[in-house]
Amino acid sequence: MPSWIPPPSQTLFSSLPRFAAAIRTMSSGSTQRVFQLRHDPLTGNSEWVVIEEDEDEDEHAQPNSPLLATTSYLDMLNDSPRNRAFRQAIDKAITSPSHVLDIGAGTGLLSMMAARAMGSAAASTRDHSNTNSNRQWNAMVTACESYLPMLKLMKKVLRHNAMEKAVHVINKRSDELRVGVDIPSRADVLVSEILDSELLGEGLIPTLQHAHDMLLVENPVTIPYKATAYGQLVESTFLWRFHDLHNNEAQASDGLRLVPAGFNNILGVKSQQYALHCNAIENEINLLSEPFKIFEFDFWKRPDSYGENQLSIRATNNGQVHAVISWWVLQMDREGTLFYSTAPRWISMPTNKSDDDWCDHWKQCVWFVPGQGIPLAKDQKVHLSAFHDETRISYNLKTQSQVDHPMMHGFKGGDFQLELSPERVAIYGDGEWRTFISTVIGNALKGRVDPLCVVADDSVFLTLLVAHLSKTSSVISLFPGLRSKGARYLEAVADANGFSMDRVQVLEKKKTLSSMIDTHQKKVDLLIGEPFYSGTEGMLPWQKLRFWKERTMLGSLLSEDALIVPCKGLLKACAMSLPDLWNSRRCLDKIEGFDHSVVNTTLGACGELPAEQVGPYLPCSIWQSGKYKKLSNVFTIMEFDFSKPISPSTGKNQVEFVESGMCHGFALWIDWVMDSDNSMLLSTGPDKRYWKQGVKLLAKPVAVGIPGSTCLSKCCHAVVEASFEPSNGELFVRHVFS
């Protein structure tokens, strides 16, 4: 883990975090203690849980909670090209006794590689030198890891490989290390892998700055040697929909304007790069330029906190520039013979990766060009200004005419912007979705005079829609995540949408609806949600059953004929072939010669494990999960009835396979029944690219076939049953193949 931990950022589509939660570290005597924040998905509440340094020290002890099971550590350790590149570079660089510092050591893999390389170098020197018999070898490896659960895991790995005496482990951030206190001298060699998909987001720059200032010798050996960020201009209507709500909603027929004319910045996505597997949309991208170099960061010298690069880029095709796609290349050695790249597959790079080497911990990045983009003709030049600070890279793109004649845009609403995820912006700009929701809410409001409507989630769209469709309605929006930001947004766009804020109330922070006093002595006629809860886009689909929990808490305030929308949730499933995702989460054995089998349970690995130790449920977008194929029809496992208070639920179904192949697991999601006639169904399954699904990977892939096929060794059926526990929001799925 780096010396500096960045704040959590909103990511596009599926991404497993390197570390899973906020942490606070304290020391008590000789014992290290961590307080880790645990979130309750059904209430939105959080609590601090204590992790002691001496807990679960037994190599075979099972962790009390899967703190690391849904992080990207396992995927990273299964990235063979990455592991091979570091091993080759370390073996090449460490040829003499050295003090090696490993920052963000993780499981200690790079530290063990360095210790082994020094051992080989020492043996070789003793065998071939007549002058070194009395030489004192100043050789040591220091592994710095600040995250206590990972440090405990590293100690297990070191013991399992008989390397605990070869690597000195320190449970601190690297900017807390002191020469003469924590380490005896400045290090000669730095090995580190503190990179995210954007390159800088894990604190690469401040970590390197402090290391060069306080921890490393002058002109140290560093692995990697340097990193170079590259980019390419692209046209993609698909990507455009994820940020330009103003123009996307222009054709909407519902009369609403979430981004009214003159308020172009009032609602949108944060101006940043978003991680995305661009290979998945290769056929939806028109390349408009050759790749270009953006920034180069030398690990072997102190980096600057800020940088700027001015580029003139010639268009190679006609089109509309909607985005800049970027990636990076690591030069692992000083000579430039070893590389690792996160480039998309249409880019030819001198690396040891192939198209089959899929991984999820590093992707490409997408930066959206504001508005409708910039039109370009072939051979026309466009000016790109690239900037970086300590944690991110950003861009400004202009044509020559825009440079010569800059335009000033005056927008209402000041500097305020309600920031939503790219997926949510795309949903709100989708005409089909808006028409569907407008029909549902319009039907629910029919015949109701002066209705009181409660929006239970963070949907600004539903709040605007009710106020727009019913001029006599009163609306209370709970906005549990948006709160005052949602209220400020509504105040800004109310006039443009033809309603007065006198009819709309947003609950103040930490306030709840608990009595008729809060509803001004009125019963609730309509309780609605999408459901959508801001900041939870990376959670599992069934954790949106928070809506059911909210409905239960508001039960005493509902009128006798109150309508609840959605009225049901259906847990849906489909058997899937997911070879890339499964391989990225498979059990570890030897990694470049070091046994990592002791981490499998803690990291939630699937593979040759007992049934009770199978991996966790993973939130992900199926279309972003490498190669995939549906092996069964979609089937319903269980139903959640929101007309009743929340309660434990169970369900069971038998599925027949409709395709032959290797089944790696089941995709799981919620379809929302929006009316009592069961005629209005909103699906969030794998075919819907704006929503995430949950995936339950099998411990071991199963060969399946179509019933009646001649191959008797293949399973043709599976029985899947599930149970939902409302006390903690957990879903348990079991399956039997036959």
Automatic annotation (TrEMBL):
<dbReference type="GO" id="GO:0016274">
    <property type="term" value="F:protein-arginine N-methyltransferase activity"/>
</dbReference>
<keyword id="KW-0489">Methyltransferase</keyword>
<keyword id="KW-0808">Transferase</keyword>
<protein>
    <recommendedName>
        <fullName>Protein arginine N-methyltransferase domain-containing protein</fullName>
    </recommendedName>
</protein>
<dbReference type="GO" id="GO:0042054">
    <property type="term" value="F:histone methyltransferase activity"/>
</dbReference>
<keyword id="KW-0677">Repeat</keyword>
<feature type="domain" description="Protein arginine N-methyltransferase">
    <location>
        <begin position="286"/>
        <end position="386"/>
    </location>
</feature>
<dbReference type="GO" id="GO:0032259">
    <property type="term" value="P:methylation"/>
</dbReference>
<dbReference type="Pfam" id="PF22528">
    <property type="entry name" value="PRMT_C"/>
</dbReference>
<dbReference type="InterPro" id="IPR029063">
    <property type="entry name" value="SAM-dependent_MTases_sf"/>
</dbReference>
<dbReference type="InterPro" id="IPR055135">
    <property type="entry name" value="PRMT_dom"/>
</dbReference>
<keyword id="KW-0949">S-adenosyl-L-methionine</keyword>
<dbReference type="InterPro" id="IPR025799">
    <property type="entry name" value="Arg_MeTrfase"/>
</dbReference>
